[in-house]
Amino acid sequence: xxxxxxxxxxxxxxxxxNYKNTVKKTDSEKDxxxxxxxxxxxxxxxxxxxxxxxxxxxxxxxxxxxxxxxxKYLQGKYHYVNTGTTSMQGVPTTxxxxxxxxxxxxxxxxxxxxLEENLAAIPDCAKSAVNGxxxxxxxxxxxxxxxxxxxxxISGTNDPDEKIASCFFYDLRELFSTEELEQLSDxxxxxxxNDGETIPVAVDISKxxxxxxxxxxxxxxxxxxxxxxxxxxxxxxFIRYVFGMNK
Length: 247
What we know:
The chain is of the alpha+beta class. It has helices at residues 67-77, 99-105, 109-131, 163-168, 178-183, 209-212, 232-242; strands spanning 2-3, 10-16, 33-37, 40-48, 55-62, 85-88, 91-97, 137-144, 150-157, 188-192, 198-204, 222-224. The strands form three sheets. The protein has a five-stranded mixed sheet. Strands 1-10-11-12 form a four-stranded antiparallel sheet, with no helix packed on it. Strands 3-4-5 form a three-stranded antiparallel sheet. It starts with a strand and ends in a 5-residue tail after the last helix.
């Protein structure tokens, strides 16, 4: 695989499932059962699952007085949350949730449902990532920021047979206009097929105005949009956002 600007031995791709300051609503707007233990409320709710149209009945807790206690509750259900590197499908995986968003969720049942829906879906997402790619994954990272926006980083070994690139990345021409690609031309990373065809698959965001304002320490972060992204248009909008293309 020939990808300009990425170390020949590995690549890293990123996508945001929803970078905007919105929170996904669940189908169930009412809790069927509420019980209280002190200030902590246990609610029986219907949560969405990783299978479209399928829900499950689950008990969630809110009303915690501090983030530490709420985190312990979540870790009791989802052992991989904020505990460093674990293994999913044999791949080193990290799942981190911002303390600021935990603080928002611990007393907000709607946000708490959103968070638990997504935390519960992560093992299935990891399984899909492994099963959906014929290459070798070396790392998975799931991050929930202070607004509940979720981003995923997927790293894998170089694939001379083009298996990884073909199963993961969108051709950016499907998501950006010719004019937009021209604006990004200095930062686009290309993949060259064995037949010589070259397609744009990622963008080097290291010099994007919004990225340079942060404390990002990763060397040459490259942002590609995976084929399995639920909302690829949001990921494309993220690229537009960091480069100031929406102004």
